[in-house]
Design brief:
The chain has about 425 residues and is an alpha+beta fold. The chain has 13 helices and 19 strands. The protein has 3 domains: about 10-95, Phosphorylase Kinase, domain 1 (2-Layer Sandwich); about 100-280, Orthogonal Bundle (Transferase(Phosphotransferase), domain 1), CATH 1.10.510.10; about 305-430, Jelly Rolls, CATH 2.60.120.10. It has helices at about 45-50, 55-70, 115-135, 185-190, 195-210, 220-230, 245-255, 265-280, 285-300, 310-315, 365-370, 395, 400-430, and strands at about 10, 10-20, 25-30, 35-40, 80-85, 90-95, 100, 135, 145-150, 155, 165, 320-325, 330, 340-345, 345-350, 355-360, 365, 380, 385-390.
Length: about 425
């Protein structure tokens, strides 16, 4: 065992050290009650006991658990628990086995494909948009705080200096200069009021690094760095990578704009432009299926009023499943809180073994189960090779407000139409 490494913290078994940062040491732990590995972050004991700043350090340490605990998003690290065990202050987080940070991929010798960078930044921008709408500004977005999972997903981590602000306000309170200087926005360096746009600036710096292997603002001293961020324009990215599309350069420049009125207002705006840029890029084979799904969904009547960014959000918030002829999709009596959209093929709806309806491409089903989470009242089988989009009620709530409003507007319209059809059918039978 590592020196001074505890064998157990609370109910959690401590296995080995994973990493060390400014706010604490992270161990691989195990939760015996649910039989899963976790990441255990322990505060530095010396820092906790420091006479002048110990209490401030303690508050910052638990701030991570408090702020990240407010957020549930597939691209934000999950916080499971936090507490005090003797002298130890700890936070229990999601453990990403085999994961790494984005830092190695900012090296000019390890650059990721352009399309992969666009996908990573898109997910980060969407996650930050979600956090901002919950009133949380991260304030320390940088490559080492973004985890890159073995399945090439991303997770934003380390909310230790994040700030929670009033949801009705557009600005945070002044909290002094906090963050990593190379990734700070001009307003952070000047210790001015900061907004969610400061996170967007920092994400722009990360995108510049991932695309070029260089930092947009560099200097040999802190004062020189501050002057560069406040006054200099980043070197053209083509100086370091000559195959970058013009659209990406424009996106990075907008994210790094020193004037807040010309910078992206929201993460969703950033993500929207990335979506357009992604469409212009040549896709490797593994991305073709994603694009095909996007094109297929876009043709469906249910999504006729959705813009491209919102469709991408729905795709990220749904699962896609293929069924063979006569496969069960829903079984009468099952409890299920999902809503289903037929992308291709057709299905048969039966109740008490009697066929009551046939549904085709573009039709929806599962509205009542989605709303009430009660037992399904009918069985639905595929009549041929059928592709279904399955939308979970919990996951859809992680989408942007605009996307949620659009979804529920169309969902309710679909539900009303379905109820009208049922009422008319009953009246005809009577």
């Amino acid at each position: 065992m590592t020196d001074n490494m505890p064998e157990k913290i609370g109910k959690y078994e401590v296995r080995n050290e994973i990493n060390r940062g400014s706010m604490g040491v992270v161990y691989l732990g195990h939760d015996p009650y649910v039989n899963r590995h976790v990441a255990l972050k322990l505060a530095f004991l010396d820092s906790l006991n420091e006479p002048e700043f110990g209490e401030r350090y303690r508050k910052m340490f638990f701030n991570e658990a408090h702020t990240a605990g407010l957020l549930t998003h597939p691209n934000i690290i999950n916080i499971y628990d936090a507490g005090v065990d003797g002298d130890n202050c700890y936070i229990v987080m999601e453990y990403i086995e085999g994961g790494n940070t984005l830092k190695p991929y900012c090296d000019s010798n390890m650059l990721l494909p352009i399309n992969k960078v666009v996908e990573i930044i898109f997910k980060c921008a969407s996650a930050l948009d979600y956090a901002h709408r919950q009133g949380v500004v991260h304030r320390d977005i940088k490559p080492s705080n973004i985890l890159f999972t073995p399945d090439q997903n991303v997770k934003i981590a380390d909310f230790s200096i994040a700030h929670i602000y009033n949801a009705d306000s557009t600005t945070t309170q002044v909290g002094g200069m906090m963050g990593s200087p190379r990734y700070m926005s001009p307003e952070q360096l000047k210790e001015e009021y900061i907004t969610n746009q400061s996170d967007i600036f920092s994400l722009g710096v990360v995108m510049y690094e991932l695309l070029t292997g260089r930092q947009p603002f560099a200097a040999n001293s802190f004062s020189g760095l501050v002057n560069s961020v406040l006054n200099d324009e980043p070197p053209p990215m083509n100086n370091y990578r000559n195959n970058l599309p013009e659209a990406l350069k424009e996106i990075v420049n907008k994210a790094l704009n020193k004037d807040l009125s010309n910078r992206y207002k929201m993460g969703l705006d950033f993500a929207a432009d990335l979506t357009k840029a992604f469409d212009m890029l040549g896709k490797p084979r593994e991305d073709i299926f994603v694009k095909e799904r996007f094109n297929a969904v876009k043709t469906l009547e249910f999504f006729a009023d959705f813009d491209d960014t919102e469709i991408w959000e729905i795709l990220h918030a749904s699962t896609w499943k293929a069924y063979h002829t006569n496969d069960d999709i829903i079984v009468e009596g099952d409890i299920d809180d999902c809503f289903y959209v037929i992308v291709n093929g057709s299905v048969e709806v039966t109740k008490n073994r009697s066929v009551i309806r046939r549904l085709e491409k573009g039709d929806c089903f599962g509205e009542m189960g989605y709303l009430s989470k009660t037992k399904r009242t009918a069985t639905i089988k595929s009549l041929d090779c059928t592709s279904i989009m399955k939308i979970n009620s919990t996951v859809i709530n992680q989408a942007s407000i605009n996307c949620q409003v659009r979804f529920y507007k169309v969902f309710l319209r679909t539900l009303i139409n379905r109820l009208s059809e049922t009422t008319e059918k009953i009246s005809q039978e009577v």
